[in-house]
Specification:
7 helices; about 160 residues; extended; mainly alpha
């Protein structure tokens, strides 16, 4: 798996270096994505920090430089508000794993969806979650044996 990933990442990184003249592993939008979730008005839902569109459209600055600026803005917010960052991270974790899209996008985004839709989504997600838990419990002994054998093979 690792080598297959390298087969994909190495050419893309080479392409990025050729275009940007900077070492960019995969993308120049990591900073923007980090900033989208960590700014003074962040709620955990999808939102846009003030100034991000202006920065990303700005001419005369390369994509890696824009990415670095976005990282600095996000990391500045995180370092000044570590408790808020932790709270937002926990909220985003639960929003990500919530089966009802309304919970991910905010309460106003899914108006008009009826109760039957919510019930079907919740029940189907709950069944999948239950089956995943049963699968993890049933195969836990097999995983322990596999990790033990992998460890012995490397010693």
């Amino acid at each position: 798996v690792f080598f297959c990933a390298l087969l994909i990442i190495i050419p893309w990184t080479g392409r990025n270096y050729h275009i940007h003249h900077h070492l960019v592993l995969l993308t120049t939008y990591g900073g923007a994505n980090l900033w989208l979730g960590n700014y003074p008005g962040a709620t955990g839902y999808i939102g846009t920090p003030e100034g991000i569109q202006t920065l990303l459209r700005k001419k005369g600055i390369s994509e890696p430089e824009k990415d670095a600026l976005c990282y600095r803005k996000a990391l500045s917010f995180i370092s000044r508000h570590p408790g808020r960052f932790l709270g937002l991270s926990v909220k985003r974790f639960f929003l990500f794993w919530n089966p009802i899209p309304e919970k991910q996008c905010g309460p106003d985004r899914l108006q008009g969806k009826d109760t039957l839709y919510r019930i079907v989504v919740t029940v189907s997600f709950s069944i999948l979650l239950l089956l995943a838990g049963i699968g993890a419990a049933v195969t836990s002994r097999l995983w322990k044996k596999a990790w033990f054998q992998i460890g012995r093979a490397h010693v």
